[in-house]
Amino acid sequence: MGKFTPSLLIFIGLLVLGCAPKEESPRVSATSEPAKVSKPDAKGSKTLAVDKESGLVIAEGFEIVKANCTVACHSATLVTQNRGNEKYWKDAIRYMQKNQGLWDLGTDEPLILSYLATHYGQSPVYRRAPLKVQWKE
Description:
Helix content is about 35%, strand content about 5%. By secondary structure, it is mostly helical. It has a two-stranded antiparallel sheet.
């Protein structure tokens, strides 16, 4: 019997765990009631409800985004750590459809794009403020 190389063992492990690429990803519907926490919006003018499980802002389109993006594909962190206008998010969706097997979002796409551009839109601040450090001599 031949040797098991590390890459072969990883491949077998992924197959056993069910992490191998799938032929076709099914559409997922969102039906559960989200747990809520609150956080101020980007302008600080009002408090937005945030899903405790995913960290996504609870607003129109939230359930569809959670079902199509986070339940079926990737972590919500991939959404919450990015900012962009509608074109940015549309380009990201097209990239995932072309290269990563994302299905056609159909009539849900405009609602998803609107939700993402509204709640994870472009921000003038891309980095945190510099730290104020007192160096000891």
